Amino acid sequence: MMRVCKSCETTTSEDATFCSRCGARQLAHTDLGIAASFRYVLREADIPGKIGRTLLVLLVKPGELTRAYVSGATGLFVSPIRLLLAMVAVYFLVAGPYWLDYNVTHSGAQLTPGDSNPAFVDDPLAFELYKDAIVDYQSVSRLLGPLLLCWLVALIRIRTREPFGHHLVFAVHYYCFDYAWAGLMAIASATQLKLLPDFSLVSWWIPIFGGLWLYAVLAARRAYADKWWQALLMGFAVIIFDMLLTSLADGIAVGYAFAQFNDTAG
Question: What are 4's strand-pairing partners?
Answer without folding.
Answer: 11
